[in-house]
Amino acid sequence: MEEIRRNIAAIRAKMDAAARAAGRDPREISLCAATKMNDAARVKIAVQSGIDCCGENRVQELTAKLQDDAYSPLPVHFIGHLQTNKVRQVVGRVALIQSVDRLPLLQCIAQEAAKQGVIQDILLEINVGAEDSKSGFSPDEADGIAAQMANFPHCRLRGLMAIPPMAKKTGDNRRFFDKIRTIAVDIISKKYDNTHMDCLSMGMTDDFEDAIACGSTMIRVGTAIFGARTYNK
Ligand SMILES: *Cc1c(COP(=O)(O)O)cnc(C)c1O
After folding, report:
1. 197, 188 contact by CB (below 8 A)
2. CA nearest 87: which of 128, 120, 117, 65?
3. All domains in the chain, ordered by first residue
4. Structure confidence by residue, pLDDT tens digits, 191-220
5. Centroid of ligand 1 to alpha carbon of 145 (angstroms)
6. What are residue 85's phi and psi, to 5 degrees?
7. CB of residue 34 inside a 6 A radius of ligand 1
8. Is the CB of 57 under 6 A from ligand 1?
């Protein structure tokens, strides 16, 4: 448990150094703890140790940890692949859905938000490396989706999220991060309805310093906070 606290302090120091090296204010960048496969007790330690929000991948884990009050007083975001039949369990319960990766999902979220009478903040997930194994809009599609936000008054587009390909060496992913930033700057310049683009969610355990150098405003970190995940349980 003490380890989680130490890990977060170390990440914060690296975030600060990366921001300063890029001439940025460290306060522009928030730390989202990717909490998948960590129970409420471990999440609570992280929440008390200087993160800004939690990111959950699975609806079942989100629901269970909300019941355990694991995240408060911090916001929780949804960051995993979301099936439309589970949208009802996510909308209105998370501050931000980062992983809107297809139009039917956006339509479904908008419909549920309207039904609940809430405005749901979202990010568009961009498959920036055009990988078959990952979901997300292609970089070419992003602007067209942002332009359609006027049709979804119960959603508000807050920015973009991306998971670039696994980098072979440090620095390899900068071109992908640069690309995401360029797409966001283009969308911002169009001033579409229901878009308030202030979040670029990019950078994870292995590449968050590069992401910060390229303009990330939110890094999502799991392993460097909680240690390696064991998937064979
Ligand atoms: C698990 C996860 C992360 C964190 O990955 P690490 O490499 O463990 O830091 C970030 N984003 C998403 C969407 C994830 O599922």
Report:
1. yes
2. 120
3. 2-226 (3.20.20.10)
4. 999 999 999 999 999 999 999 999 999 999
5. 25
6. -75, -5
7. yes
8. yes
